[in-house]
Write a structure and sequence with these properties.
6 helices; 27% helix; six-stranded antiparallel beta sheet; eight-stranded antiparallel beta sheet; 2 domains; Alpha-D-Glucose-1,6-Bisphosphate, Chain A, domain 4
């Protein structure tokens, strides 16, 4: 695998992936541009009418570059996708793919999805079935967090903030953390805490959404929101002591690992 992440001054993010495919560019070109082939691997139903592309969900797009069989680029709402094909030996293709988007913390989810799509495209080109493995995708997602350097922690004055895309929906995360046992005025369930931050009483608990509690120096707030793909986005803030950033970073890694094997 070969992936890089670029952050742009305007706040947008680009993921770039390269794959070597044992098929000639003309054949790969058909797979990335013809709806009857896209149906075998692309994550949405595609209809092309001139330079307009409609998808089975989400906003429409426009073709921004069409240079057969070398470059095919198009928008999908505010996102931009670009596929570049170069000959690789007598019968192969070097595929370079870029996806530019605004949600930096969704990069691992996007990259996992596109890796899986390209593997499905390769299976289609090979003429063999492709088997989707959600557990393997969850593990790959967390690998991409590290491969792409997506450190979830920022520190601003006395506030530590972590944001991370998770691989499970909010209700599963809440259940795993023991959120249903949170009671206002009582100490929060242990999975919501770290040893470096003595926990005080729960101040607010909204099932599947928010748990907030007091500490000796400030507050801790766990918030689960809609994320990229099928998982929730976790936003955690701890005020009062910026020195505990590593404690929360470690706890976030532990939680991500636990969720890959969590069962109801």
């Amino acid at each position: 695998m070969n992936e890089t992440l670029t952050l742009h001054p305007d706040g947008r993010t680009t993921v770039r992936m390269q794959r070597r495919l044992p098929h000639p560019p003309d054949k790969v070109w058909r797979a990335i541009t013809q709806p009857e082939h896209l149906a075998a691997w692309f994550p949405a139903e595609v209809t092309i009418d001139g330079d307009r592309i409609t998808y089975g969900f989400g906003p429409d797009g426009r073709i921004t570059q069409h240079d057969p069989p070398h470059v095919f680029a198009h928008t999908w709402g505010d996102d931009h996708l670009r596929w570049e094909l170069q000959p690789d030996g007598p019968h192969g293709t070097l595929l370079s793919f870029t996806h530019t988007f605004t949600d930096r913390h969704g990069a691992a989810s996007f990259t996992t999805g596109w890796h899986t799509c390209i593997m499905a495209m390769l299976a289609h080109l090979d003429g063999r079935p492709f088997h989707h493995d959600p557990a393997a995708m969850a593990r790959l997602h967390d690998d991409y967090i590290h491969i792409l350097g997506l450190d979830p922690v920022t520190v601003d004055d006395d506030t530590v903030r972590l944001e991370r895309q998770l691989t499970r929906p909010a209700d599963d995360v809440w259940q795993h953390l023991g959120g249903d046992h949170a009671t206002a005025g009582q100490t929060p369930p242990a999975p919501f805490t770290v040893s470096g931050v003595p926990a005080g009483p729960v101040m607010r608990a909204e099932t599947g959404k928010i748990l907030e509690y007091a500490t000796e120096r400030g507050t801790v707030r766990w918030e689960l929101t809609e994320g990229t793909g099928h998982g929730a986005r976790l936003i955690l803030t701890c005020t009062g002591d910026p020195s505990v950033a590593d404690d929360w970073r470690i706890r976030m890694e532990e939680l991500a690992s636990e969720l890959t094997s969590f069962t109801k």
